[in-house]
Design brief:
heterotrimer, A alpha+beta (160), B alpha+beta (292), C alpha+beta (799), B: 292 residues, alpha+beta, Uridine Diphospho-n-acetylenolpyruvylglucosamine Reductase, domain 3, Enolase-like, domain 1, 3 domains, 5-stranded antiparallel sheet, 4-stranded antiparallel sheet, 11 helices, 31% helix, C: 799 residues, Aldehyde Oxidoreductase, domain 3, Aldehyde Oxidoreductase, domain 4, 7-stranded mixed sheet, 6-stranded mixed sheet, 20 helices, 31 strands, binds FE2/S2 (inorganic) cluster
């Protein structure tokens, strides 16, 4: 089966890869680009573990084929880290609040929360729960995640 | 859960799409827009097209235009764009109310209005709103362009009346202009943001004296596909809100619910009756407020 | 944020501190099994049986084999020939269990063949080309019918669908019943749910022909994993190296992929290439053998006019599915706290384990304790209702009192410590119970259905699995060890080697915090590594809320030994007796003459490099290990079948407020309060997370989750669309308040905390729902209580 050449930008770096049309975006990110921060939990669009930013909006990368990413820009959890290697304020809040246990849903949670804060700098509890409602977490019961997102928002407001 | 193999093309124009569809022969060629319904089906190999025609690069398929008595929405308009559109929130309050209940932010960012309609999910909010408002869709093939009313478009669960050689390019949704219009929308799902088990929508216009002059009512999860409740609408028309309760007398003849892992037929029909009532009541009181 | 009623006397323990593990997870640098890349690795896909029960007449693999990119297609016959049967907890010589079906399929989704190919994509393509001829047979599905009705036999060689049935009596049950004025009998049912981690199970295996080592990377949380791999593959245990440094994406008991592992190891050896199998979600839900308890309880309680329960008879019938594995033993663990935190004098307990044509069951969070707790709490609700007493008061009257510890319950467990009344009181206070009742009543006055729930639960921790012996005398196992090795490098840096994987419990944080506390060194500078199974000391894996108890105590012991060695060296070097040396903050100084001192680094330098300054006979280097026995364990049951089971007991009280939509039956959780006591919390954030996460998990079991089967044995909930894990909308904000009654049995007073939330929440939510339904005289004691169940009950009542 013939492969198609795809050029996509991931975490600000341009990559050219050859993929079969049926390869999902998440498999391409993980298996070809070896960006294994993005996880797979269901492959049918329910759990949100595969969330990435696609042209600045959060999407499920198991519900896209890599060929569809031609010319598009993707940010994965690895790309939330600053160029200097510094973790972002949101990542730092996740750490501070222990917003995880096993860490498996965490990259997806970070992506969804990151997208939320871009759109709504001062979300309330309900906004946060809505933003992460498409990301299942089996460990935490979500509370420390909500607290972390709130903390990040507050810190930004205070200019910390 | 990996899709079976397929060929992939990304044409730049509707004409090209139509030609590719027309040339399919024995092959199954499928259009992919948002892919939020199609890709899971492919991953489970319940759908296995030979070719995917990606319409994401086709120009002109994602505009929202106000044509006065109706809106024209490009088939590839993202659900998230509908959610953010001022035109929609001003002119199609029913759709605006329902859109946030479509999937999740992540799926609305990819999912499109056309994709939602052509897949014919029995409780798809977009289809229900469009159907209630007597929307039509524009279907194109190499040989013709046809405006098809949504009434009759939904055939069975996940089956709609679109030919394999057609592409849905536009959705045309009538806008109600009256002075006192209200909408109501309820749905129940196991979890907050699941596919609805039962859903109900209503849009009502009241005359100055409080009589219902126009009623659009639809329900989901009570038949294999979204249902416009013509009998209920008819009973509502010309009546006063005080007489609402009798409007649903004929409901059981209109619906045909089924039992599945999420709910029994009995549950669906009882809950539908209550949610439809609530939706109508909401619509009426909103319309009243509008007038006052 | 959680409140704490005690302030820590420790410098690191019980303090707010960032965890060690989170740093790698927030940056996407966790190393999960699917991230393991072994050069040349091939991929497996499995073919599931579409039939709940069928004879396999013929398997034609030729078309699949001839596909390009396919390396092998394995079927059950070959695998069964070359490997031994997988292990069962019960003594069931005639129940064979292999990773791939042999001759017969016993549930829909059971794996019939496995393909090895260059990619998972190709492997799935090839799996579709395998042609299997089945003779479909009627299936055994209805749990209750397994006991006495004629049902198709799941394992014909076993001759019955009953795998285990036994009744125990502890204490004078008949006398106690005769002495009580009241009895009530009721049924409580726990639906087939599980923990369903977001990461499926996965395993990678590589066989090295020259070293004869099988390297295994797996998403595993399982006692005796390496033992079983070796036994089934018929090789010595030191040919198997399990890499414990794989991050496990959630488990809560269920990551027990022994069948997957045997399959992959066999293929890796057979083909001479590294092989990986990562379950996809469909494999996982139907074929992964990861379902949980599915139980029917019939209970009778005998009590007096005050609601004080004297005796209890409980029959627990559990459906383990087609292959029992360790699952039937989940009827045994609840003996540890069979009457919950209550002072019941005598108990009759009948445990029945049946097999059916359903996916297999594995250990789930609490190892059977959550369903049992739900059954016991249902009884407390019933007693209160029967006597017209306050539900909280009835509990308070039955709770073990704080001056009664250690308290022995009829089956033999010794409750170590606690102040149950204080914790219950604090749940009542924190929730402002009266206010909550007023809010409930206000909602009711608006015509709504609203209810307040109450439940308590006891979380046994420590994992002394002597109950296994009560189920299978061949399992004469009286210890459940855990070990740690601590090394201090010449530079002074500290490394601790633990011996298992971690699946979210924060063991690295726990070990470094305790080691840091004991050695007065900053835990952030202490490295914790997961030794592989060839390097590691004895372990039984992080199950049973046992790691802070057993590994934590081992860590204290090893650290204390290091400190002692360092004091010995310092004393010798300074020229005084050991007793004259004081250690504080990294300095060893002489009492009364503090200027005579050695720094931490100096002592480390001496120990590693300056033999001439070492006390004669002292071992060089600075290392210590501790192999820790479960406190209080080590004996077989006595002639009355009494035996102290788990050593440490944490306690919780839960109070939720729910509202039910009359129109849809949907339950909305408004508030959730929880007071808990797990002794000394090593890291409060971790404890809090596990408790709230456990509550969320319990809410799932109470209201949403079920592996539903149709009457023919087809699984109806095989995807995330049909099996409903609660999302952020379904879980309310939990207000938690912490107590601390240190355990007398552990190094710092710590107890377990991984299971309690899950043990209490289902009962608490059911209590709240039933409180809401009480005005209508409706009671539902079958979990999950779904919207449709409530609506249907309301409808039936109104007819
Ligand atoms: S893996 Fe994509 S949503 Fe679950
Ligand atoms: S932290 Fe484990 S699934 Fe969310």
């Amino acid at each position: 089966m013939k492969e198609i050449e795809v050029t996509l930008t991931v975490n600000k770096r341009v990559h050219t890869v050859n993929v079969a049309p049926r390869m999902t975006l998440v498999d391409c990110l993980r298996d070809i680009l070896r960006l294994t921060g993005t996880h797979v939990g269901c492959e049918h669009g329910v759990c949100g573990a595969c969330s990435v930013m696609f042209d600045g909006e959060p999407v499920r990368s198991c519900l896209m084929f890599a060929v569809q990413a031609e010319g598009h820009e993707i940010t994965t959890v690895e790309g939330l880290v600053g160029e200097d290697g510094e973790i972002s304020d949101l990542q730092d809040s996740f750490w501070e609040c222990h917003a995880m246990q096993c860490g498996y849903c965490t990259p997806g949670m970070l992506i969804s929360s990151h997208a939320l804060l871009m759109e709504n700098p001062s979300p309330d509890d309900h906004d946060i729960r809505e933003a992460i409602s498409g990301n299942l977490c089996r460990c935490t019961g979500y509370q420390q995640i909500v607290e972390a997102v709130k903390m990040a928002a507050e810190r930004r407001q205070e200019g910390l | 859960m990996k899709a079976a193999t397929f060929d992939y093309v990304r044409p730049a124009s509707v004409d090209e799409v139509c030609r590719l569809l027309a040339d399919a022969g024995e092959m199954e060629r499928k259009i992919i827009a948002g892919g939020q319904t199609l890709v899971p089906l492919m991953a489970m190999r319940m759908s296995r097209p030979d070719m995917l025609i990606d319409i994401n690069d086709v120009n002109g398929l994602s505009e929202i235009e106000d044509k006065g008595d109706h809106l024209v929405i490009g088939g590839c308009t993202r659900q998230r764009a509908l959610e953010r559109s001022e035109i929609i929130s001003k002119r199609l309050p029913l759709l605006a109310k329902a859109i946030r209940k479509v999937g999740h932010i992540q799926t609305r960012n990819r999912g499109t209005i056309g994709g939602s309609i052509v897949h014919g999910d029995p409780t798809a909010e977009i289809s229900m709103a469009a159907l209630a408002l007597e929307a039509s869709v524009l279907l194109r093939s190499v040989s013709e362009e046809k405006e098809v009313p949504l009434d009759g478009f939904f055939e069975a669960a996940m089956v709609t009346n679109i030919e394999p050689d057609q592409i849905l390019t536009e959705v045309r949704i009538p806008v109600w202009e009256g002075a006192s219009i209200g909408t109501g929308f309820y749905e129940t799902a196991s979890r907050e943001s699941d596919y609805a088990i039962v859903s109900a929508m209503a849009q009502i216009e009241l005359a100055a004296d409080g009589t219902i002059v126009k009623a659009a009512v639809s329900a989901g999860g009570v038949a294999p596909c979204p249902l416009k409740l013509r009998g209920v609408e008819l009973a509502l028309k010309g009546s006063k809100p005080a007489e609402l309760s009798s409007a649903l007398d004929g409901l059981d003849e209109e619906i045909d619910p089924d039992t599945d892992v999420h709910a029994t037929a009995g549950y669906r029909s009882r809950v539908a009756r209550r949610l439809i009532t609530r939706a109508i009541e909401d619509a009426v009181s909103e319309a009243k407020n509008e007038r006052d | 944020m959680g409140q704490t009623t005690t302030l820590s006397n420790y410098r690191y323990v019980s303090r707010k501190r960032r965890t060690k593990e989170d740093r790698r997870f927030i940056t996407g640098r966790g190393k999960f099994v699917a991230d393991v890349e072994v050069p040349g690795m091939k991929h497996v896909a499995v073919l599931p049986s579409p039939h709940p029960r069928a004879n396999i007449l013929k398997i034609d693999t030729s078309a699949a084999m001839s596909m390009s990119g396919v390396h092998y297609v394995l079927t059950g016959d070959e695998l069964a020939r070359e490997t031994s049967s997988l292990f069962h907890g019960l003594d069931l010589p005639n129940v064979k269990w292999h990773p791939l079906a042999v001759g017969m399929t016993r549930y829909a989704g059971e794996w019939v063949a496995a393909v090895v190919a260059d990619t998972r994509y190709i492997a799935e393509d090839a799996a579709e080309l395998i042609e299997v001829e089945y003779e479909s047979l009627p299936a055994a599905v209805d749990t209750e019918k397994m006991i006495d009705e004629d049902q198709p036999l799941v394992h014909p060689e076993h001759g019955s669908n009953i795998l285990f049935r036994k009744t125990w009596e502890w204490g004078p049950v008949a006398d106690d019943f005769a002495s009580m004025p009241h009895t009530i009998s009721y049924r409580a049912r726990w639906g087939r749910s599980s923990t369903v981690p977001i990461e499926t199970f996965g395993v990678v295996a590589k066989w090295d022909e020259t070293t004869e080592v099988m390297d295994v990377w797996a998403s595993i949380q399982m006692p005796q994993y390496q033992d079983q791999i070796a036994a089934v593959l018929r090789m010595p245990m030191n040919n198997v190296r399990v890499h414990n440094d794989v991050d496990v994406g959630g488990s809560y008991g269920v990551k027990r992929g022994i069948k997957h592992t045997v399959l992959v190891c066999y293929l890796a050896k057979r083909l001479g290439v590294p092989v990986r199998f990562i379950e996809d979600r469909l494999d996982n839900m139907s074929g992964g053998d990861a379902h949980g308890p599915d139980r029917i309880f019939d209970v009778t309680m005998a009590f007096d006019d005050d609601g004080v329960i004297k005796s209890m008879k409980m029959r627990a019938l559990d459906d383990v599915g087609a292959y029992p594995g360790r699952a039937p033993l989940q009827l045994g663990k609840p003996m540890t706290a069979l009457c919950g935190p209550y002072r019941v004098n005598s108990i009759e307990y009948e445990a029945i384990s049946v097999t059916s044509n359903k996916t297999g069951q594995v250990p789930v969070r609490g190892f059977g304790q959550a369903p049992t707790n739900f059954a016991v709490e249902t009884g407390l609700e019933r007693v209160a209702k029967f006597l017209g007493l306050d539900r909280v008061e009835v509990r308070a009257r039955n709770l073990v009192r704080k001056d009664e510890f250690p308290w022995k319950i009829p089956p033999g467990s010794l409750y170590d410590s606690g102040d149950f009344h204080a914790v219950l009181d604090s749940a009542i206070k924190t929730s402002d119970w009266q206010e909550l009742i007023s809010r409930r009543d206000a909602l009711r006055a608006e015509g709504k259905l609203a209810g307040v729930g109450i439940a308590t639960c006891l979380e046994p921790g420590g994992g002394n699995n002597i109950f296994e012996y009560l189920f299978n005398p061949k399992l004469e196992i009286t210890t459940f060890v855990e070990s740690v090795l601590i090394k201090v490098e010449p530079s002074g840096a500290i490394t601790a080697v633990m011996c298992t994987t971690t699946s979210g419990q924060g063991h690295e944080t726990m070990v470094s915090t305790i080691a840091g506390e004991e050695l007065e060194r900053d835990p952030d500078t202490i490295r914790v590594v997961h030794g592989d199974s060839l390097e590691a000391l004895p372990t039984r894996s992080p199950v049973a809320s046992r790691m802070t108890i057993v590994l934590g105590t081992a860590t204290s012991n090893a650290a204390r030994e290091i400190k002692d060695k360092m004091i010995t060296i310092a004393a010798y070097d300074i020229g005084v007796e050991k007793e004259q040396i004081e250690y504080a903050d990294g300095e060893f100084s002489m009492r009364g003459e503090p200027e005579k001192k050695l720094s931490w680094e100096e002592v480390c330098h001496i120990a590693h490099k300056q033999f001439h300054r070492m006390p004669p006979g002292q071992e060089l280097g600075l290392q210590a290990y501790s192999v820790q026995q479960v406190p209080g364990a080590g004996q077989l049951p006595n002639e009355k079948n009494e035996v102290p089971l788990y050593p440490c007991f944490s306690f919780q009280a839960h109070v939720p407020l729910v509202e039910i939509d009359r129109d849809t039956g949907k339950v909305k959780l408004h508030d959730y309060y929880i007071a808990h006591d797990c002794g000394t919390a090593i890291n409060p954030d971790i404890v809090r997370g596990m408790i709230i996460g456990g509550v969320a998990h319990g809410i799932g079991a109470a209201l949403y989750e079920k592996f539903e089967y149709d009457p023919d044995g087809q699984l109806l909930a095989g995807t995330f669309v049909d099996y409903l894990l609660p999302s952020s909308h379904e879980i309310p904000t939990v207000t938690d308040v912490e107590h601390c009654t240190p355990s007398p049995l552990t190094s710092l007073g710590q107890k377990g905390s991984g299971e309690g939330g899950y043990l209490g929440a289902p009962a608490a939510v059911a209590s709240a729902v039933n409180d809401a339904l009480r005005p209508l005289d409706i009671e539902i004691n079958e979990l999950p209580i779904r919207a449709r169940d409530i609506e249907t009950a309301l409808y039936e009542k109104s007819k």
